[in-house]
Amino acid sequence: MFCRPSNGGNGGKRFFIYIKKKCIFVKSESGLVVQLNRTSDSGSESRGFESLRGHKMDFLKNIDSSWTLFLDRDGVINRRIVNGYVERLSDFQFLHSVPQAITLCKKVFARILVVTNQQGIGKGIMTEEHLSIIHTYLKEQIPEIDKIYHSPYLICDNNIMRKPNIGMALAAKKDFSGIDFQKSIMVGDSQSDIEFGKNANMFTVLISETNFPTSADKVYPSLFDFALDVNKYFTKI
Ligand SMILES: [Mg+2]
């Protein structure tokens, strides 16, 4: 058996990959262990839990390589700034093990798309150019992301391109004809993300460390925990 820490894009020792009895395991800092190269769970413990409301079926079992993953940005990929905005690149900080999580997700999903509300632009706090620099950096760090969509509109605009309205989902479907919303998952950290996913008829995942009632289909403490759980059901590794 050997064990080594990851040294992914954010440089932290965030998870371990090891082989035991010809099986590959990944262990997160939180202690979650997932076996990658077998279809059975073999007793692995998951921190993911069904939401109090929403689908009870385990839709993760139905995922195949035709599915699409939609990701919110702030609070899922990078640290959210409470009562503020990621105005410039120096404000952008990856959450733990996100590059590794998206690498794992790319083994499963046909495409990974980011959909993000950025009303700081509408407020005049930041510019499209500032956002473009941040998103160019994000794509450089995580090339598995196929495309990033953003909405610069204010809440009061109620523009179709602003979540929970589904304009960004429709724009993505126009760009990627293979998208089937019934074979898509929206992962976000806010109720508007969950409503966006449900409005587009997607499955929904809330990223939260708190187990409070939500209409999301599943809840995980981090994108990495979600990625590990998804990979439990996928055998092409
Ligand atoms: Mg968010």
List the helices and strands and how they pair.
Elements: E1 2-5, E2 15-20, E3 23-28, E4 33-35, E5 49-50, E6 68-71, H1 98-106, E7 111-117, H2 119-122, H3 128-141, E8 147-151, H4 167-175, E9 184-188, H5 191-199, E10 203-207, E11 218-220, H6 223-232
Parallel strand pairs: 6-7, 6-9, 7-8, 9-10, 10-11
Antiparallel strand pairs: 1-2, 2-3, 3-4, 5-11
Q: Care to describe what's here?
A:
The protein has 237 residues and is an alpha/beta fold. It has one domain: HAD superfamily/HAD-like (Rossmann fold). The protein has six helices and eleven strands. The chain has helices at 98-106, 119-122, 128-141, 167-175, 191-199, 223-232; strands spanning 2-5, 15-20, 23-28, 33-35, 49-50, 68-71, 111-117, 147-151, 184-188, 203-207, 218-220. The strands form two sheets. The chain has a seven-stranded mixed β-sheet with strand order 5-11-10-9-6-7-8, with helices on both faces. The protein has a four-stranded antiparallel β-sheet with strand order 1-2-3-4, with helices on one face. Helix 1 (98-106) links the parallel strand 6 and strand 7 (111-117). Residues 1-13 and 37-56 have low confidence and may be disordered. Residues 72, 74-76, 80, 188-190 line the site of magnesium ion. The site of magnesium ion has 8 residues, from loops.
